[in-house]
Amino acid sequence: MSIIKLENVYFSYTADKDVLKDIDMEFEKGKVYGVFGKSGAGKSTLLSLIAGLETVKKGQILYKGKNLNKMNKDDYRSNEIGVIFQSYNLLPHLTALENVVLSMDISKVKMSNKKQEELAIKLLDRVGIDEEKAKRKILQLSGGEQQRVSIARALSYGAEVILADEPTGNLDKETENEIIEILTSLAHDDNKCVIIISHSSKIKQKVDILYYLVNGKLEDSKASKK
Ligand SMILES: Nc1ncnc2c1ncn2[C@@H]1O[C@H](COP(=O)(O)OP(=O)(O)OP(=O)(O)O)[C@@H](O)[C@H]1O
Ligand SMILES: [Mg+2]
Question: Is the pTM of this model over 0.85?
Answer without folding.
Answer: yes
